[in-house]
Amino acid sequence: MEFEPLALEDSEDFWKVEADDHEFWDAYIATRPKYSQSFYSIIHRYHSAHSSSHDLAHDIGCGAGTVTAELALHYSHVVASDNIADHLAVAKSKLAPDFDESRVSYTHSKAEDLASHHPAASADLIATAEAIALMDRDAGLDSFARILKPGGTLAAWFYGRPTFADAALLARAQPILDRIMALNWRKVIRGSTSQRARGFKRCADAMASWLDFLPFAADTWTDVQRHKWNTHGTLPFFGREACGYEIEPVSHVAEGEKVDVVGPDAGFWANEWDVAALKEYFRVLFPGFRHAVGEGDKEIDGLFGELSEAMGGQGVARRFTWPCSLVLATRR
To answer: Is this prediction's pTM over 0.90?
Structure first.
């Protein structure tokens, strides 16, 4: 399987990792939150309430294929797509031992252009994890509406920063973690090309809206549901302190849509990390961080020292939870 490269060097697409960087990908997967079966069950139950068809699902912005693998347990075929060919190569290497091409196929495409690669009204479900804030909103939603069957499901979610579950640590240590986050993103964002800066701005506004920036036209979509967990946490990975420009969240929540806010929930996707694990998380959070985090940046190193002290010292693991927003909608 070969994919033609998309031009990313001076574009609004600011994420790229080479497929042969196995160490990065293994560490990246290991430090992502683990989507729980109870979370997936919300999506599966929602779809089953509107459709009995489980023939074809799409995982858009598939990355290493984590969501693809889950969908393949419930749908006859899954299309994994990504706008970066190297990411598809990683997904195929991870998925191929368990799912041959009769179960999972791969499309190199931006989400906004996916309708030009697949038939109209062909998909039962579209899932997009941690990607919709990076897209051109209107073009993406139009593409999804074209591909979905009537009664088909759109499930889009986005999670934010790791958040201390303990109230005392939330007050004492979270501000330090947030400063580390801001400094890393500041190094990446400031000085970006104008096109790339537009991508960062669009993403920052979308994250700050907790995905409420997504509008669902009543003649195209029905039964819109917006589920949010741990809204006391911070969904945006970067804000004004990192970007240097004003963040402009918007809300298109319409009358009749269901909004469900849960939390604080210390058990939501909970994991335990010490400061070494947090360093690893930051090292692979974004490709541009690898040369900025620790062992070379005195200010960030100093903040990790403060964070270690606030957490109780080296080797002391603390519980983290995650802020998350999930949007569900059914194609009319």
So the answer is: yes
3-class SS of residue 105: strand
> Do the strands 258-262 and 221-229 form a parallel or antiparallel pair, or are they unpaired?
parallel
8 A C-beta contact, residue 106 and residue 91? yes
Q: Residue written as tokens 């939390």? A: 263
Cis peptide before 119 (omega within 30 of 0): no
Contact 86, 287 (CB under 8 A): no
307 pLDDT more than 70: yes
Interval 194-225: pLDDT, tens: 888 888 899 999 999 999 999 999 999 999 99
* Tokens, residue 51: 């459709």
**Contacts with 146 (C-beta within 8 Å, 6 or more apart), sequence order:** 115, 120, 121
The 3-state DSSP class for residue 100 equals coil
What sign results for the dihedral spanned by CA atoms 113, 76, 156, 86?
Answer: negative
Distance CA 299, CA 288 (A): 17
CA distance 256 to 300: 46
Q: What is the largest CA-CA distance in the chain?
A: 57
Q: How far apart are the first and last CA of the chain?
A: 35
